[in-house]
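Can you give me the bound-state structure? Components:
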Amino acid sequence: MVKRVQSPSSINTFLQCPRKYYYQYIEKLPTSPNINLVRGNIAHSTLEYFFKQDLAGIDEINYKEEFIREIQRIFFTQWGKYRDALKVLGLSTKDLKFYFEETLMMLVNWCNYFIEEITLMLEKKENIVDAFNSVKPLTEQEFQSETMFVRGFIDAIKYVGDEVHILDYKTNAVPEIKESIRLQLGIYSLLYNEKHGKYPNKVGVFFLKDKLHMLIVDEELVENAKQAIHIVHEHTTMFDKKEDYEKKTSPLCKWKSGQCDFYDVCKPY
Ligand code: SF4
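Here's the bound-state model for the whole set.
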């Protein structure tokens, strides 16, 4: 059977529930949009545009106010661009207002950390443009491995002195590096290593609601990622029938405010 190209999210889906993987990646049943996905996209686009901003008019005196103003301005524009996607979700005005304000608060929180980095960098650099370009990461990098059959988009790569750091931005309610995130970061480390011949020194997540959480890239992180990739390839190259993908029931089938995208077709209980 043809070897499928996997991604951190397809691998995590398989490990969470093989049947869910089957519905999503083999039968390709549609998935429903949800607010976390849409606001995650809005936050990512906002950061992307923030890093590309024109620095004309920003100097070593006014940068703090100007960066806060700019991230808010970009966020308002991005929120507007996603108006149709937000409408489809059918949220009440009250809920929509909550998510709007919370996402804005997250981005301003992130921007305050960015400003702190700029302030430190200004001790070493002559002007705001040099400081901004030194702190700004390489963003939205696509990595595709022909040997591992895995691809992934890395949100940000930073060069800190001699070190390479890989970052992901998340809008999660709980700032915790759970197993699925460790796996995602381990896979990014493997992809980076294959392309550049060395592992990043650290990987981490900037939880926009909180702060940056970093991990040192060690053998355990990369070996777990290798093992997970192997498990998924081994199964998916051997089997393509629904009954070969077991239902792994868990609280992720149905919870207080939602359910798995495939709950109705799966009938897990
Ligand atoms: S409803 Fe539960 S068992 Fe069924 S596909 Fe979703 S996660 Fe798996």
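A couple of observations. The chain has two domains: 35-135, 138-243. Residues 17, 19-20, 23, 247-249, 252-253, 260, 262-263, 266, 268 surround iron/sulfur cluster (CB under 6 Å).
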